[in-house]
Design goal:
Elements (H helix, E strand, L loop, with lengths): L1 E4 L2 E4 L3 H12 L4 E4 L13 E2 L1 H9 L3 H7 L1 E9 L5 E11 L2 H14 L3 E3 L2 E9 L2 E9 L2 E6 L2 E4 L6 H5 L10 E10 L12 E5 L7 E7 L4 H4 L2 E7 L2 H4 L4 H11 L10 E2 L4 E6 L8 E2 L2 E3 L15 H21 L4 H7 L1 H22 L2 H13 L1 H12 L2
Parallel strand pairs: 1-10, 2-3, 2-11, 3-7, 5-13, 11-19
Antiparallel strand pairs: 4-6, 5-6, 8-9, 9-10, 12-15, 12-16, 12-17, 13-14, 14-15, 18-19
Helix pairs in contact: 1-4, 1-9, 2-9, 12-13
Length: 390
């Protein structure tokens, strides 16, 4: 069996993993990025890169290219169950299909000096004396071991690394099912479309879920090419009913569904599990850290995963750089430098959103909230700042 040695292994080349690897490589760390897929590849998601994500894209020098791949969504429209609308500015979100965005960030990591192994299936971690010291994998048909001082699990909501270290999230109240497809030819809001926008619908027909409609990619506005999906409050609320059936019922019976009557669905529905940050997992241990969906960092209600993954990747990279400098890879050392800092940044926001989440799926509450937003602009500004800006 071939044995490879690196300072840090990052398992998973999604946005969190690639951003983490970029910061590590830029600092001169010998980092290996590993992913089971060959890029570019699709990933079910709402495709939104918020202002919080964009600060990392800009810092790592990928902002020029993303402007050629996505659209800038300057506004968010929220529609209540009684069809009252409220509109608020975003923090400068780009909407870029994940097969384009993830490939961009993976290439950015390589440009900064990270090595990337694609088609590399990690199947376990290596443990010695209570520490994670590497991973076992199959790379292009060959079984390999990669030894390291730190392993960073960025391998998504079904994380092999999280399972191997006993930190795989199972609390159903913080696991939300989601479903996504693409349509082309969707009729967009004629006033907002020229400015770039996204929208959320809290309709009684789909409770306890909501619908998103995000024009995506550089031609999203021009062609009505939209990422369309549904998010559910949590797994306990799902109870096995068909998200697809509820979506098509919304199309047939909601006034907003009329805009889909001449649209064409151009991709199959894809589902995934969304482990939200309300679980407050520790996210680290001796010799390892978990970031992004692997570490349950998704923001509740809005299912905002990329920005939290990006921030967790940056915090983990900073922690790894300091750990390498001090030659200290213990749980206690890492915890003070990654999970604690992430919590300081996100805890207040997560608590607020979780409280809102527990009520927003009630149509009566959404009706009241949206009306309140439209009649009390100071309240609206404060609420949206708390929910959508870290």
């Amino acid at each position: 069996m071939r044995i490879i040695e690196r300072d840090v292994i990052v398992v998973g080349a999604g946005p969190g993993g690639s951003i983490c690897a970029s910061y590590l490589a830029r600092a001169g760390v010998d980092v290996l990025l590993m992913d089971k897929e060959v890029f570019p590849r699709d990933k079910p998601c709402a495709d939104a890169q918020t202002g919080n994500t964009m600060k990392h894209v800009i810092e790592l020098g990928a902002d020029t290219e993303i402007k050629e791949l996505g659209i800038l969504a300057n506004y968010l429209k929220v529609v209540s169950a009684n069809y009252e609308e409220t509109i608020a500015p975003t923090s400068g979100a780009y909407i870029t299909p994940r097969w384009l965005f993830d490939d961009l960030m993976k290439r950015t990591a390589v440009r900064h000096g990270a090595e990337c192994l694609e088609d590399c299936w990690v199947n376990d971690v290596i443990k010695e004396d209570g520490y994670v010291v590497g991973v076992k994998a199959k790379y292009q048909g060959e079984f390999i071991e990669v030894r390291s001082k730190l392993v960073i699990g960025a391998d998504g909501s079904h994380s092999v690394v999280a399972k191997a270290v006993g930190m795989f999230p199972e609390y159903s109240g913080s696991i939300a099912p989601a479903l996504r497809t693409y349509f082309t030819g969707v009729e967009l809001d004629p006033k907002l479309a020229p400015k770039g926008y996204i929208e959320l619908h809290f309709d009684e027909r789909v409770k306890p879920a909501y619908i998103w409609v995000f024009p995506s990619g550089k031609d999203g506005i021009k062609d009505g090419f939209c990422n369309v999906g549904m998010g559910v409050a949590d797994r306990d609320s799902y109870d096995g009913w068909s998200l697809e059936e509820r979506f098509y019922d919304w199309v047939e019976n909601s006034p907003y569904g009329e805009r889909f009557k001449r649209a064409k669905q151009v991709a199959p529905w894809k589902g995934w599990r969304v482990p939200d940050a309300h679980q407050r997992l520790r996210n680290c241990g001796n010799g390892f850290m978990l970031i992004g969906d692997a570490g349950s960092t998704v923001i509740p209600l809005v299912d905002e995963g990329i920005s939290a993954a990006a921030d967790s990747g940056k915090f983990a990279a900073d922690a790894a750089i300091e750990a390498l400098k001090e030659n200290n890879f213990s749980d206690e050392f890492l915890y003070e430098r990654y999970p604690m800092k992430f919590d300081e940044m996100y805890n207040d926001r997560i608590k607020t959103i979780k409280l809102v989440q527990e009520s927003m799926y009630d149509p009566n509450v959404t009706n009241t909230m949206v009306h309140k937003f439209n009649t009390d602009l100071k309240f609206k500004e404060a609420a949206f700042k708390k929910m959508f800006k870290a």
